[in-house]
Design goal:
The complex is a heterodimer of chains A (about 350) and B (about 270). With about 350 residues, chain A is mostly helical. Chain A has one domain: ABC transporter involved in vitamin B12 uptake, BtuC (Orthogonal Bundle). Chain A contains 13 helices and four strands. In chain A, strands 1-4 form a two-stranded antiparallel sheet. In chain A, strands 2-3 form a two-stranded antiparallel sheet. The two termini of chain A are about 35 Å apart. Chain B is an alpha/beta fold and about 270 residues long. Chain B is built from nine helices and twelve strands. In chain B, helix 4 (about 130-140) crosses helix 5 (about 160-170) and helix 5 packs parallel to helix 6. Classes of the chains: A mainly alpha (about 350), B alpha/beta (about 270). Chains A and B meet through helix 9 of A and helix 2, helix 3, strand 8, helix 4 and helix 6 of B. The complex binds adenosine-5'-diphosphate and magnesium ion. Magnesium ion binds near residues 59, 101, 181 and 182 of chain B. Chain B: It comes from Candidatus Brachybacterium intestinipullorum.
């Protein structure tokens, strides 16, 4: 034959499994230990240990019970958001409306309870419905228009921001809605969303619980597989039958639900809600997720890593004044941590993708 | 042809109902008519090669077959029964598996996650990870590729191996029709050979294969049946008996056009 025929002798049994001829097609085997060391959780975890040991050496109070509670408190609310934001980022999207939405959901609950004389639990449920609707609108718009989620959720952020002020002002004439504590259902709601054991807040339990649930969903469930694929290559995911729209919209609704939980934790704990609360927090959530190993391009990241990122956030925020570092530098330090994390992530990705030689 | 031991006689055309048949499929994108009245049939245990130059509409054709695009008009039949696919999932559920050219895999995801993507084996909603990894290693071994670590990102595999993962996956999930869009286009000679062997293996296992290529050599090595597309239209439809490699290459180059080109290039060479 003129063409490049398979090099099998006539009459020979057809195509024995090629066992030796394809050596250079084989995978380089990367040691399991080395691979483990390259995972984002290990990187972020080591950084967290370093930060903790560093602060404790300078100021032993940092590791006392009060010290622990002090940084675990902001870490918990940050972590709840970072988990959802990490899932969304792994799925290849952003959500800039999450920060303001934590304020909106608290306001919806507070306004529903105080203005409509509603049971606190009903107010909380109404607020959940509101949050899920916001998430669904974000998700459906991003999915159908194929616009960058950055822009769509930036729009949503400003819509909510304006509403927070306008509606609250119109209804109450003030910027803070207070007095939620006096309404029926508050005490039982407080047990779930606003209680504390010693100096430790119940938000800590929510955070740990959601870290576990988030990690299991991401790593063990088929939804997790779909989330990775959505961020890795959403056209390919659709082509093999992944319900891309459901996953994408579900992810936006998840971040919205997380914002609702944080809003609820706040409004129940303090008994009031303020129009300014939550503004600007969205970037902190993204930073925590990135410190935990999420790629900005999607397709890779970790829920546990995001929680560790939130922990680092809490430690740095509370530890700086404790060791005598001026807290005005907090954002600068955070920015540097972020840049370092991005570089480490980039390096890990390059190592992981090293093509066969 | 008899020189090629892998080629057993294809099933008798007159008596078997094609697994997949399309009749007069048309598909436009805005003002571009990517497909016009394309007709084609795929039978079990037979490799149908779709040939054509870049932009001829080959990818559009298979994306229509696989439910990725909905055709503007025309008919699709499975086992002689009319069907309409509203998504790739529909087509998959009917046994039509496609390995796309421009829709690669998610490169950072482990091999096993890519293999099972969209069809994960679960118990109580959780993926049976260990079983999934074992199956990937086994199925790839059947294709002659040893996957030492199913957790390796698939992006670290060579192009030929990735094609083989996709083919192994389709075979494993019980596809009846396997559609491959230019699986050898980006590969070297030897890796192309590996992929072509798996095409033949899928054929031996009774799958109907649609093999898209613009390489007549590759087509002639595995094909039972050749469909030529040009600017979205079928220009010829031949069985292996009706053509030769040379004939196929000529058809593809477009006989008269090739002569004109020869002429033009010859003149250009003289004037330079
Ligand atoms: N999604 C699309 N939108 C608009 N035009 C398209 C689209 N897909 C393909 N086309 C056009 O249809 C024609 C056929 O393309 P394609 O099927 O990819 O060809 P081939 O795979 O044979 O190279 C081309 O002119 C291409 O530009
Ligand atoms: Mg093509």
């Amino acid at each position: 034959m003129s063409a490049a025929a398979p090099a099998s002798a006539p009459g020979a049994p057809p195509a024995p499994p090629p066992s030796d001829g394809d050596k250079d097609d084989r995978l380089v085997s990367v040691g399991r230990v080395r691979r483990l060391l390259m995972t984002p959780e290990v990187g972020a975890g080591s950084a967290a240990v370093l930060v903790f040991v560093g602060f404790t050496l300078v100021s032993p109070v940092f590791a006392s019970q009060a010290g622990l509670a002090n940084f675990l408190d902001p870490a918990a609310t940050m972590g709840i958001m970072a988990i959802a934001v990490a899932l969304l980022m792994i799925g290849g999207e952003f959500d800039l409306s999450t920060g303001v939405l934590t304020g909106s959901t608290a306001l919806v609950t507070a306004l529903a309870v105080t203005e409509l004389n509603m049971n606190v639990w009903l107010g909380i449920l109404l607020s959940l419905g509101f949050a899920l609707a916001v998430g669904a609108v974000n998700g459906v718009m991003v999915h159908l228009t194929k616009l960058p989620s950055f822009i769509v959720t930036l729009g949503m952020m400003f819509v909510l921001w304006g509403l927070n002020y306008a509606v609250t002002q119109r209804l109450t004439g003030q910027v803070t809605v207070s007095g939620v504590r006096q309404y029926s259902g508050y005490d039982s709601a407080r047990a779930l969303f606003g209680s504390a054991v010693g100096p430790f807040q119940v938000s800590l339990v929510w955070w740990l619980l959601l870290t576990a649930v988030g990690a299991i969903v991401l790593l063990k469930s088929r939804w997790g597989n779909w989330i990775f694929a959505l961020g890795g290559n959403s056209d390919a995911a659709r082509a093999v039958g992944v319900p891309v729209m459901r996953v994408r919209v579900g992810l936006f609704m998840t971040t919205a639900a997380a914002a609702w939980l944080v809003g609820t934790l706040t409004v129940i704990r303090y008994g009031n809600a303020t129009v300014t609360s939550g503004i600007g927090l969205e970037f902190y959530f993204i930073i925590a997720a990135v410190i935990g190993g999420c790629l900005l391009t999607g397709g890779a990241g970790s829920v546990i890593g995001a929680s560790i990122g939130a922990l680092i956030f809490g430690m740095v925020q509370q530890g700086m004044p404790l060791v005598g570092l001026p807290s005005e530098f907090f954002r600068t330090i955070l920015g540097l941590v972020l840049l370092a994390a991005v570089l480490v992530n980039l390096w890990i990705k390059k190592r992981a993708m090293k093509v066969t030689s | 042809m008899s020189e090629n031991p892998a080629l057993t006689a294809p099933p008798d055309h007159a008596t078997t109902t094609p697994v997949l048949e399309v009749r007069a499929i048309t598909k436009s994108f805005g003002r571009v008519t990517a497909l016009r009245d394309v007709t084609c049939a795929v039978r079990e245990g037979e490799v149908t090669c779709v040939l054509g130059d870049n932009g001829a509409g080959k990818s559009t054709f298979i994306k229509t077959l696989s439910g990725y695009h909905a055709p503007d008009s025309g008919e699709m039949l499975i086992d002689g029964e009319p069907v309409r696919f509203s998504s790739p999932r529909d087509a998959l559920d009917r046994g039509i598996a496609t390995v796309y050219q421009d829709l690669a895999i998610a490169p950072l995801m482990p091999v096993w996650r890519n293999f099972f993507l969209g069809s994960e084996p679960t118990r109580l909603g959780m993926i049976r990870t260990r079983e999934a990894k074992r199956i990937v290693v086994e199925e790839m071994a059947k294709m002659g590729i040893s996957v030492r670590d199913p957790d390796q990102p698939i992006g670290t595999m060579s192009g030929g191996e990735r094609q083989c993962v996709a083919i192994a996956r389709a075979v494993y999930f019980g596809a009846r029709v396997l559609i491959l869009d230019e699986p050898t286009a980006a590969l070297g000679v030897r890796q192309s050979g590996v992929v072509l062997k798996y095409v033949m293996r899928a054929r031996e296992r009774g799958l109907g294969v649609i093999f898209i290529t613009h390489n007549p050599n590759h087509a002639y090595l595995v094909g039972d049946h050749f469909v030529l597309l040009k600017r979205g239209q079928t220009v010829s439809d031949m069985t292996r008996e009706e053509t030769t490699l040379r004939g196929l290459a000529q058809e593809m180059a477009g006989g008269a056009e090739l002569e004109a080109l020869e002429h033009e290039l010859g003149r250009a060479a003289q004037t330079a």
